[in-house]
Amino acid sequence: MRRGRRNPDRLHVGDAPDLRRVEEVEPGRLRRRADMRLPGPAWLGFHVEHDADGGGTTLRQRATFAPQGLAGHAYRRSIGIFDGTVFDGMTRAAEQCG
Predict the structure, then answer these.
(1) Which helix (H) or strand (E) is 78 found in, with range?
(2) Angle 14-17-18 (CA atoms, 0-180°, nearest 5)?
(3) Which of 18, 34, 61, 62 has CB 3.0 to 4.6 Å from 42, enough for a Cys bridge?
(4) CA distance 61 to 37
(5) pTM
Protein backbone atom coordinates (compact mmCIF):
# COMPACT_ATOMS: atom_id res chain seq x y z
CA MET A 1 0.00 0.00 0.00
CA ARG A 2 1.27 3.41 -0.90
CA ARG A 3 0.68 6.14 1.64
CA GLY A 4 1.05 9.86 1.28
CA ARG A 5 0.18 12.72 -0.99
CA ARG A 6 1.51 13.83 -4.34
CA ASN A 7 1.18 17.48 -3.39
CA PRO A 8 1.37 18.88 0.17
CA ASP A 9 -1.27 21.56 -0.61
CA ARG A 10 -3.85 19.55 -2.58
CA LEU A 11 -5.52 16.16 -2.38
CA HIS A 12 -5.89 14.02 -5.49
CA VAL A 13 -7.93 10.88 -6.15
CA GLY A 14 -5.85 7.93 -4.97
CA ASP A 15 -3.90 9.85 -2.29
CA ALA A 16 -3.80 8.19 1.14
CA PRO A 17 -2.37 10.65 3.67
CA ASP A 18 -3.65 8.50 6.57
CA LEU A 19 -5.98 5.51 6.89
CA ARG A 20 -8.45 6.76 4.28
CA ARG A 21 -7.85 6.89 0.53
CA VAL A 22 -9.29 9.77 -1.51
CA GLU A 23 -12.07 8.58 -3.86
CA GLU A 24 -13.58 11.90 -4.93
CA VAL A 25 -12.38 15.50 -4.92
CA GLU A 26 -14.55 18.29 -6.29
CA PRO A 27 -14.90 21.93 -5.31
CA GLY A 28 -16.66 21.85 -1.94
CA ARG A 29 -16.69 18.03 -1.77
CA LEU A 30 -14.35 15.33 -0.54
CA ARG A 31 -15.04 11.60 -0.15
CA ARG A 32 -12.55 9.16 1.31
CA ARG A 33 -12.77 5.38 1.70
CA ALA A 34 -11.29 3.55 4.68
CA ASP A 35 -8.05 1.92 3.57
CA MET A 36 -7.90 -0.59 6.42
CA ARG A 37 -9.32 -4.01 7.14
CA LEU A 38 -12.88 -3.65 8.36
CA PRO A 39 -15.86 -6.02 8.25
CA GLY A 40 -17.41 -3.92 5.48
CA PRO A 41 -16.62 -0.82 3.40
CA ALA A 42 -16.55 2.59 5.11
CA TRP A 43 -16.49 6.14 3.75
CA LEU A 44 -16.04 9.60 5.21
CA GLY A 45 -17.36 12.53 3.21
CA PHE A 46 -17.28 16.30 3.58
CA HIS A 47 -19.41 18.90 1.81
CA VAL A 48 -18.96 22.66 2.18
CA GLU A 49 -21.99 24.89 1.60
CA HIS A 50 -21.71 28.68 1.36
CA ASP A 51 -24.69 30.81 2.41
CA ALA A 52 -26.39 32.64 -0.46
CA ASP A 53 -25.76 36.00 1.21
CA GLY A 54 -22.06 35.20 1.69
CA GLY A 55 -22.41 35.51 5.45
CA GLY A 56 -21.26 32.06 6.43
CA THR A 57 -20.26 28.54 5.54
CA THR A 58 -21.59 25.16 6.67
CA LEU A 59 -19.44 22.04 6.81
CA ARG A 60 -21.38 18.79 6.48
CA GLN A 61 -19.69 15.55 7.42
CA ARG A 62 -21.05 12.09 6.67
CA ALA A 63 -19.66 8.77 7.82
CA THR A 64 -21.02 5.65 6.13
CA PHE A 65 -20.34 2.03 7.05
CA ALA A 66 -21.90 -0.94 5.23
CA PRO A 67 -21.55 -3.88 7.64
CA GLN A 68 -20.95 -7.30 6.13
CA GLY A 69 -22.00 -10.37 8.04
CA LEU A 70 -22.31 -10.86 11.77
CA ALA A 71 -18.82 -9.45 12.39
CA GLY A 72 -19.76 -6.25 10.56
CA HIS A 73 -22.91 -5.73 12.60
CA ALA A 74 -21.09 -6.47 15.87
CA TYR A 75 -18.35 -4.00 14.90
CA ARG A 76 -20.92 -1.32 14.06
CA ARG A 77 -22.71 -1.74 17.38
CA SER A 78 -19.46 -1.69 19.35
CA ILE A 79 -18.09 1.53 17.82
CA GLY A 80 -21.42 3.32 17.44
CA ILE A 81 -21.28 4.72 20.97
CA PHE A 82 -18.08 6.61 20.11
CA ASP A 83 -19.20 8.09 16.77
CA GLY A 84 -20.62 11.31 18.19
CA THR A 85 -17.49 12.06 20.16
CA VAL A 86 -15.07 11.26 17.34
CA PHE A 87 -16.90 13.03 14.52
CA ASP A 88 -17.83 16.08 16.60
CA GLY A 89 -14.15 16.44 17.48
CA MET A 90 -13.16 16.22 13.82
CA THR A 91 -15.66 18.92 12.89
CA ARG A 92 -14.44 21.23 15.66
CA ALA A 93 -10.83 20.73 14.55
CA ALA A 94 -11.76 21.55 10.94
CA GLU A 95 -13.57 24.71 12.04
CA GLN A 96 -10.44 25.90 13.86
CA CYS A 97 -8.37 25.47 10.69
CA GLY A 98 -10.45 27.66 8.51
Answers:
(1) helix 69-79
(2) 115
(3) 34
(4) 22
(5) 0.73
